[in-house]
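Q: Could you write out the predicted structure for this multi-component system? I'm mainly interested in how the pieces pack against one another.
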Amino acid sequence: MSIAEMTMTEDTRTEDVKTEDRGFAPGVANTVLHISDVHKSFAGLHALSDVDLEVREGETHAIIGPNGAGKSTLLNVCVGRLKPDRGAVVFDGEILTGKSPHEINQLGVARVFQTPEVFPDLSVLENVMVPALSKRDGSFKLNPFRRFGAERAIREEAESVLESVGLQAQLTAHASSMSRGDKRRLELAMGLIQHPRLLLLDEPTAGMARHDTNATIDLLKKIKEGGMTKVIIEHDMHVVFSLADRISVLAGGRIIAQGTPDEVKNNPKVKEAYLGEEQV
Amino acid sequence: MQNNSPMKDWLLLFGFAAVVLCLPIILEPIGANYPDLLQKFAIFGIFAIGFNILFGLTGYLSFGHAAFIGVGSYVTLWSFKLLTMNIVPAVIFAVAMAGLFAYLIGFISLRRSGIYFSILTLAFAQMSYNLAYSVLTPITNGETGLQVRSIRDSAETSLRDGDIRIIDQALGIQEVGVPITNLFGMKMSGYPGFYFCAILLIICFFIAQCITRSNFGMMLKAIKSNQNRLNYTGIHTRPYLITAFVISGMYAGLAGSLMAVTDPIAGAERMQWTASGEVVLMTILGGVGTLVGPVLGAGLIKYSEQKVSSWNEGIITDFLSFLPEPVQDFFVGVASLFVGDGWHLTLGLMFMVIVIFLPGGLMEGFRRIGGLFSRGSKAPAASETAPQPAE
């Protein structure tokens, strides 16, 4: 298979590729997302170089790093917004590199944006029902005579997801009239309703008050119990250390450290590059 | 947006149908109850409803929809010339061909969005217009326009000048003089022609209503709202856009076909960019994204085209005869610029006033008036639910 060949030749850690090929290896958690040897440069600036990253099934993997370290670029490479110059992103045996955003989403990768991206002209409920329909009906379905909102199952699911993020009081409000924090929660609901196998969160709590941040942390912890794999990009160390199972530290487009929160905290390179300034 | 229960939709549909079918009575006081104008109302209503499916729902502004009108007209004429004067096959072929044509143009134009999309559609429409006018003369009869003729005597006569009407001939239908379009024997000019168009208008309204309220329609609205986000939500927006483009192209093809049904001649001028621009005006004037608005806009523009352009200085002088003579002369002088051939000035002024003060079109005006009346009981919420203005 071409995927296997590709990862074999381009990746040095062949052990993991084998576990991936077998589907499941007892004792070792399955690798869901495999970023191997990804390079990306913009007009000579190396935004990402030699990035290797594995995200295991069910874990919450945080990517941290100072501003301009390439975190968002990495996420954009994963969801098909950017095409890497070299290297590959493999999700559950499928190469994502070169696929378009909707194909990647249909494979089970949902993304929550850094600046909230919602449908401003639609109501809150409609905002959540659109991704639910996309999950059920696929990337295109011509059903001009099926009334939107008439299907109770989807409507109820949307309502319950909105309740879990605390927006149940605003179902009919226009998304454009919401506060930034509410938009973030709405976007989270839009991601959650798709029950993605991998949820990519780009600073899910940026711009939120401490109280809302804690609510979001609780919510994300709850999802974790459901077994959803998550990748979080985050500045807030409080959020990172409350949620992450493993952390990768990105600096200058390279991964300088990887490991459990404790390992990363005590890594001198990380302290030098990043944590020192943040005073954890 | 949540108040569109199925019940309300049925009421709207029946109300709309009732008004359309009673138009000959309703429009009597303003002198617009003659079949020719009524037919125009219905035909351009269909055109505008179809255009609104693309522009109102997805926000993609096409400047080339007149091309589909042209395709619909020519196909209809050829069906009259080759097959039968019965309008049923003509209308079906016209809609199908317009759909095919729309697919080709949409497939290419929808590679771009925003202003580039508009310009691509404009370019295609102008290309079609010029083709119809010159290169494709054997099919379109160029400047003269394609017309229904009597059955040709010999095979040497070109098909443009003599028809064959295979089906009618096989059925042994006798023709005296220039044949007239019919629906299984019922002639399609005058009031029967209007009622045929009116029934199609109601069906078209119903289909547009279904689309607007459906899952499919919601995806189109989501494209308008935030297409990028929709891509990341797993929706492939391109086939949605192409489908919407084809549907609205088919509406335009139907409108073109009906023009040829009520008056069996097809000329290239129907495809000119001004005709494409006119439907944009109709939609914006009535209210982009609303169901009834585009029909109202079409009616208003066609009414002023027919009426204001027929007014002359004499009518204005009569109207202002209560004023003292010098004042009257002044006002007549000014007002006569805006009537007759100058009716486009009136249209332009009307358009400016509506876009500036009522960006949601006539429908927003009605909603505001409705809001004034209900303000006593309810909070000022009514005026805030106005739709987003057009870009």
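A: Regarding packing and overall arrangement: The two ends of chain A are 46 Å apart (CA to CA).
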